[in-house]
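User: I'm designing a mutation panel for Sporulation sigma-E factor-processing peptidase and want to avoid disrupting the core. Could you give me a predicted structure to guide residue selection? Please restate the sequence first so the numbering is unambiguous.

Assistant: Good idea. Sequence first, for numbering, then the predicted structure tokens:
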Amino acid sequence: MIVYAEYYFLHNLLANYMILKTTSRIVNNNFSKYRAFTGGFIGALYCMVYFIPSLMFLYNILMKIIFALFIVFISFEYKGIKEYLKILMTFYIVNIFLAGSIFYIVYCTGIGYSKVSLVLIYAIYFIVSSGFFNNFHKIIKMLNVFKDLKNDITVKIEDRKVVFNTLMDTGNLLKDPVSQDPVMIVDVKKLEDVLPQELVYIDYSVMNFKKVDYLMSKLSKTISSRFRVIPYKVVGNEDGLLIGIKADYIEIQGHKKGNIILGLSNLNSDDMNEYDAIINPNFI
């Protein structure tokens, strides 16, 4: 069998790049095309040892591990050894899955290795590039809400920061109909040092446009620019209105997220004294 070195190199460069891109998506790591290309290029160079018999000693298990460590080191950004090891393990799992799938298909069908691997590479590209992987990831997170039902979330509004003890609720799927920003339901009394009293000491269980107009007239220009009115429907209330305030960002589990709206509510009742905000698992 004739193997052309240039095609072999390009084939491995593409495969390595897609494996790195898939790994990045799985671990939710910032993807840099340049870093991934560099890592893929190094991996493709390593594969060229196949054409140099005097360097075949580089194919032993120890050297393969060293090259894998180096490729992950070059290709990703990470904060500490724990995150690095997480990326490394995911990188190995993706490689094992791809290699095992190729071997199985080649063994069962007799189709050539190059054709099978290219088809799988493009299949991975389609899955990673489409919304399928994102939706799958969201489903996995929703199925694992029992792991972290409660979290502390820091909310920043202008120069103030407020910490909320939040409860996850898969039923909270509210979004601003205009911006499509997700809504986090919060106890308004936690924001009494941030918002004017006109927004803090009122009953949010009954809201209408007349009340909204009154509240708008009491707000400063700074706060009014953050003001949102969000319609919603629940059983027994087909025309509900929720008052929202846009936060600068929220910080949860060490990660900052922008474009979040705080839906103001009176959560801190006698039977709800263990948390003061409700979020959807997709925030995590």
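For picking mutation sites, this is relevant: The chain has nine helices and nine strands. The two ends are 51 Å apart (CA to CA).
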